[in-house]
Amino acid sequence: MSQPVHLRAVLKTTAMTAPLKDGTLRSDRVALDFTEVEPIHKAFAPMVREAAFDISELAIVTALQAIAFERPVVLLPVVVASRYQRGCLVSYRPHGEVRPEQLRGKRVGVRSYTQTTGMWVRAHLVEDYGLATPDIHWVTHDPAHVEQYRDPPFVEHPAHGKGLLAMLHDGDIDAAIFGNDLPPGDDYVPVIDHASAKDLAWAQQHGFVPINHVVAASAETCRREPAAVRAAYGLLSQAERQQAAATAGPRKTLSGLDALSGPLAWIIDACLEQALLPRKLSLDEVLGPAHALLEGETP
Questions:
Q1: Which of 56, 66, 105, 160 is in Cβ range 3.0-4.6 Å of 48 for a Cys bridge?
Q2: Tens digit of pLDDT for each residue in 120-142?
Q3: Rounded mean pLDDT of 172-194?
Q4: Burial class (CB in 10 A: 0-12, 13-18, 19+), 19
């Protein structure tokens, strides 16, 4: 029997991906050789700029930008991270609480304008409060992972080098968006009241929890080892189905081209409103290469 093809892979260790890393889920056709990158977003630029891995976790905004700017990656239709987002927008109590209706003309910080959590928070502000993205001054310090992208003119890049917390404490910004690194303590107040209830209602209405991270494969690897990439996708899909079955609430598996089409169309429209994409992407552009791969063709 032939030996499995070894592919370089990077995924954050979670309840979903742990079975892939500890060998609980395995394949005779592919062996995933994992590189640990912490935090995981530091793997995104090497993947879209240099194809540094065969298989890599990618933020959904980064993946869409990579496709728009014709970077050599293929989005695989599997979600590895999704979560609610409204509670990630916070103000600093000592400077006075801030309500969403007061954000027009204010300064809001976010690590990178292209950060997926920022995209979701801005989309919710548009949907819930009618706040167009250019109505707010966005303050950021990290560039996009896709180097061809340029932030729009309503995004500021301060030269002082302060982090989000320091800017919030010093009053340089009125609110900030954090990801998994929400600051602890009662001084950090959610800007959106009843965020959890609104998030749950949104997921029930739209049929999915906001997507943060998907998986991409190197286009060259797809051409060179298509069967191995298909086998890796099969493992990822199995891991997602197992995790979805073990999770309470409105979460459901988004593996597969059909399941991901609706959420992707919603996200593309949100990215366009925020000037995150240079043009509207079609679903065929986004999912067509994976469809060809999974049908046994060369993408």
A1: 66
A2: 999 999 999 999 999 999 999 99
A3: 92
A4: middle
253 pLDDT exceeds 70?
no
Q: Is the pTM of this model over 0.85?
A: yes
* DSSP symbol at 228: H
The string over 80-118, giving b where at least 16 C-beta atoms fall within 10 Å of a residue's C-beta and e elsewhere, is bbbbbbbbbbbbbeeeeebebeebeeebbbbbbbbbbbb
Burial string for 166-188 (b: 16+ CB within 10 Å, else e) reads ebbbeebbbbbbbbeeeeeeeeb
Cα torsion through 83, 213, 257, 231, rounded to 10: -120
Q: What is the DSSP letter of 201?
A: H
The domains of the chain are located at 5-83+209-294, 86-205
Tokens of 72: 């050599």
Compute CA distances 226 → 4, 46, 168, 279, 286, whole Å: 13, 22, 48, 29, 18
Cβ partners under 8 Å of residue 18, min gap 6: 24
Rounded to whole angstroms, the Cα distance separating 55 from 57 reads: 7
Instruction: Return the CATH fold of 86-205.
Output: D-Maltodextrin-Binding Protein; domain 2 (3.40.190)
Q: State how far Cα 124 lies from the chain centre.
A: 15
Between CA 59 and CA 148 the distance in angstroms is 16
Q: What SS3 state is found at 57?
A: strand
* One-letter amino acid for residue 58 of the chain: L
Question: Per DSSP, what are the bridge partners of residue 189?
Answer: 91
3-state secondary structure 163-191: CHHHHHHHCCCCEEECCCCCCCCCCEEEC
Residue 171's region, left for phi above 0, alpha for psi from -120 to 50, else beta, is left
The rounded distance, in Å, linking the Cα atoms of 122 and 118 is 6
